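Is molybdate ion placement plausible here? Inputs below.
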Amino acid sequence: MSGPAPSPIPLEEAWARLLESVRPLPAETLPVADALGRHLAAPLTAAATRPAADLSAMDGYALSGPGPWALAGESRCGAPFGGTLSAGQAVRISTGAAMPAGADRVLVQEEALRNGDRLSLAAEPPEAGANVRRRGIDFERGDRLLPAGSRLGARQVALALSAGIARVAVHHAPRVAILDCGDELVDGSVPASNGAMLAAMAAGLPCTVRRIGPVADDAGALGAALAACADCDLVLTSGGASVGDHDLVRPALEAWGARIAFWRVAIRPGKPLLVARREDTLVLGLPGNPVSAFVTGFLFALPALRAMLGAPDPLPRAVPVPAGADLPPGGARGEFTRAVLREGRADPIRQRDSSLLAQLARADALIWHPPHCAGTKGGTDVPVYRLENGAIA
Ligand SMILES: Nc1nc2c(c(=O)[nH]1)N[C@H]1C(S)=C(S)[C@@H](COP(=O)(O)OP(=O)(O)OC[C@H]3O[C@@H](n4cnc5c(N)ncnc54)[C@H](O)[C@@H]3O)O[C@H]1N2
Ligand code: MOO
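Reply from A.M.:
I modeled the complex. Tokens:
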């Protein structure tokens, strides 16, 4: 790609082209507890039935037939009652303990009158099946529990372990390199905060991160830094992505043999975003302005990582939230306005300069204002991306 800078492409097109450029990484098999945050490479199928037997849902007495009853023993978790009850017999039972053969209901202990080994009712008799969890009501062995692509969070880890699954096939964790680019970062006159910020954003996902640089605005230095990233799945650069004389990321990528998928997106902040691929390495050239680096990291780098991890739906999701104030009509670029969520509204932050970290740090959402949209009255629902969790539930 050479000559004048191309026209920025719409956000939706940029997202589509990004997702075309990313494939889930190959699968590996891991112990379930080590697979936290990974996405399944194959469906999860129950290897056991849960509950494995009929269980009591309450502490009380398992009953056989009408009362009064004679106590015949106890069923505890891990120590079930071995015999079979006949009508007029009961056993003391704990929550989660196996129902004895011959019993069909549980009387909760608060509704029982006990006199030695004799048991009678203090209230209405329980109906047949009362307070019993039937075998297999959660799932049966062989049931399809989760489809391929599901993310293993805390609840899914618990489900897999409960279903008797010790190891799972998941997509590999991406290897990420993060490069800070700019002479002012090398000489220390500007702290290289973008790299640390992007590494912190990536840390919410399973991946390994290598920080490189700061790298000088110099074709040789950039080329050497990129060459050190050839084994990575994702390379994030920040800075040097625009059109100035010292914005060398694009030519350095081309010299390295990368193919540019697109450069420049019609969003503010974040217009200079560049996406390229070299063999199995995806490169996202993020703009240097800190808010631009954050917004493009949020909108493109986190989704790219999620897609590599095998997420079927890796893009952030907007939710409708009433705008806390009037918003002006949209321009040629769609605008991601930093906002503070307060009392169910998204209060826009007025300052738009993409270098302002103090405003970014107090924001907890982005309001999306599409290109050329009409002005919006305060109180009207607008699409809002929550910043926590990368806007993924
Ligand atoms: N003539 C034009 N100029 C600019 C355009 C344009 O279209 N035409 N686009 C503007 C937009 S929009 C953005 S955003 C910036 C992005 O520029 P670069 O990606 O080339 O970034 P730099 O020029 O290298 O740096 C910009 C700014 O950010 C600071 N920076 C850079 N890296 C870091 C880092 N790792 N940590 C903290 N801060 C960093 C750098 O010191 C600069 O202040 O271009 C506009 N210009
Ligand atoms: O797009 Mo730049 O990111 O506006 O400042």
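Short version: The pocket of molybdate ion (ligand 2) is lined by residues 268-271, 287, 289, 292, 354 (CB under 6 Å).
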